[in-house]
Amino acid sequence: MPFRIAFLGTGEFALPSFRAIANSPHTLVGLVTQPDRTDARGRVHPNVMKEFALERGLPVLQPTNINSEESLAQLRVLDAELFMVAAYGQILSADVINLPPRGSYNLHGSLLPKYRGAAPIQYAVWKGERETGVTIFKIEPKLDAGLMLATMKTPIGPKETAGELEIRMAELVVPTTLQFLDDLERGQLSGTLQDKSLVTKAPKLKKEFGAIDWSQTAAQIDCQVRAMQPWPQPYGFLKVEGKPPLRVLILSVNSEGRETRDESREPEAEIASQSSTLNPQPGTVVRSDGKSLAIRCGDGLCRIETIQPVGKRPMAIADFLRGNPVPVGSRIDMTEQ
Asked: How far apart are CA 111 and CA 198, in angstroms?
């Protein structure tokens, strides 16, 4: 028999599976999602999950604390046989987890046991993984530690941002989600324990994680740039002599790393002609020819491809340099000071 399912989710990652279950033989009895958020102007941020649920006439619960007695009472009224959870945003207590008789299950955006926590997709990109995926596991009180019941794998594209990857993974996992429910209904699931020795963490991102440390290798900078999009955005402060620091977003880079033979001396010669240093520190502009901008990094050069000054649109670096000359010897630093 098809299940009566309550879905706990908030963001874009959860929406495709939520829609798919709504159009399946299973019965959605309601959505539990985060409370409405407002911006600085008091405007309510759109909640795509809530919008879809209301279009379908489904009950929508938005508890501030899902583990409260009031929330538990509301969940009982839904009379769900199981909970499906994806990018919900609150940690569930044992009372919530154990409420549905057929269990609570999570769609987690990594190949567990790697990247347990709130930002698994971002960390997979940030740490240079070439493959990631989604793990469906049975929820237990310990964070993302339950029995693994189904997986979906996908490569990470060399230029793919975390935001792009999340959207793609959200669609790719739909067949896996529906197959999981079918297998659970037929009693054909056999789970796999997580290897505790392979556990890594992916805690919630902080705004300061976007500051680019140019002492990293070019490949590491490229990973950070892609991982921090769409939030908190990879940034730095461009410091040109005679001008105030300009906060810029670095939206794409070329991660060639070590200089080629033809370039190995030229940047040093350029900077030597305009500065007293013969050993430019990471973050120093070592080439600026009006069409490209090369920054000293931990293993050579990192070229900026796309940049966005604060308050402006993203632009190719050549377009930026046309109106904003950046002499060799200028810097991009992590802080404004």
From this structure: 11
